[in-house]
Specification:
The chain has seven helices and 20 strands. The protein is of the alpha+beta class. The strands form five sheets. Strands 11, 12, 13, 14, 15, 19 and 20 form a seven-stranded mixed beta sheet that branches. Strand 7 (64-66) and strand 8 form a beta hairpin. The chain is globular, with a radius of gyration of 18 Å. The model has no long low-confidence stretch (mean pLDDT 93). Catalyzes the hydrolysis of UDP-3-O-myristoyl-N-acetylglucosamine to form UDP-3-O-myristoylglucosamine and acetate, the committed step in lipid A biosynthesis. It comes from Antarctobacter heliothermus. Belongs to the LpxC family.
């Protein structure tokens, strides 16, 4: 059955790119509500922004959603990944500004808050998007693909990255996201950047709220952030975290296999747009108990949150 939170939970911090203070509250919602953001700082006009693939607006370095009135919320990928990875299907997210708080640069603070509050089951079956045929998008930089799941699988993911900095280098990871794997394996992996890119991001008005505490900064073979890495392959794990958050904008859990090769937010959104432009490539199914048990977040418990966070 679909779920929502048992009670509201609030997070405060700063926006990674804007540097502005941010307060975000996740509230329970009814069955089939989906995920919506509400801008509480706007008094007039349409303040509701759907967390949906067709509301994504082109924005470098983060995922930004915008409604028809131009009301927007950016850097939604980490909270969306947490909701998906904890198995939350319905929620109203109130936010008092244009960007979600970055917190520690990962999804683990959101995960901890969600699992501490607990989930309430609703009397409506889960609808999922089952991939029936391969869909792929490519650019000069990389590619992303969705293909049918293997028999008995829910959502599986493979990601490959390759950076010149030796502290990151070439990394590949494959993961079955069933049975709370997101919480155990991915949720504490932080956003990262190269020290050589920081000045250019600042000049472009980006990463103004970034610090060594909410991002992993690397310079060649050195990790400049105190404490070093949480995982030797933290970078590719964070890319998978981002991909799950961006796939959550499909509006329902996905049953299929996602592959990303040097992919980013824009490419994953382009992949969803390609998918929904091919009606024969997917179908919406009502999950039976066996299917629901294989979705991200099914059966996850609070003690599975990584201790490092």
């Amino acid at each position: 059955m679909q779920t929502t939170l048992r009670s509201p939970i609030t997070f405060t911090g700063v926006g990674l790119h804007s540097g502005a203070p941010a307060r975000l509250t996740i509230r329970p919602a009814s069955a089939d509500y989906g995920i919506w953001f509400k801008r509480t700082d706007i008094a007039l006009g349409d303040t509701m922004v759907p967390a949906r693939w067709d509301a994504v607006d082109a924005s470098p370095l983060c995922t930004r959603i915008v409604n028809r009135a131009g009301t927007s919320v950016s850097t939604v990928e980490h909270v969306m990944a947490a909701l998906s990875g904890c198995g939350v299907h319905n929620a109203l997210i109130e936010i008092d500004g244009p960007e979600a708080p970055i917190l520690d640069g990962s999804s683990v603070p959101f995960v901890r808050g969600i699992l501490t509050r607990g989930l309430r089951q609703l009397a409506t079956p889960i609808r999922a998007i089952e991939i029936l045929a391969p869909v792929e998008v490519r650019t000069d930089m990389g590619w992303a693909r969705l293909s049918p799941a293997e028999m008995g699988q829910g959502l599986t993911m493979q990601f490959h990255i390759d950076f010149a900095d030796a502290a990151i280098g070439e990394q590949t990871k494959t993961l079955n996201l069933a049975n709370g794997a997101f919480v155990r394996e991915l949720c504490d992996s932080r956003t990262f950047c190269r020290a050589s890119d920081v000045e250019a991001m600042h000049a472009a008005g980006k990463a103004l709220g970034g610090t060594y505490e909410n991002a992993v900064v690397v310079d060649g073979d050195k990790v400049l952030s105190p404490g070093g890495l949480r995982h030797s392959d933290e970078a590719v794990r964070h890319k998978m975290l981002d991909a799950l958050g961006d796939l959550a904008l499909a509006g329902a859990p996905i049953i299929g296999h996602y592959e990303g090769h040097k992919a980013g937010h824009a490419m994953t959104n382009a992949l969803l747009r390609a998918l929904f432009d091919m009606p024969g490539a997917f179908r919406v199914v009502l999950c039976d108990p066996a299917q629901a048990a294989r979705l991200p977040g099914a059966g996850v418990e609070r003690h599975e949150i990584p201790a490092v966070a």
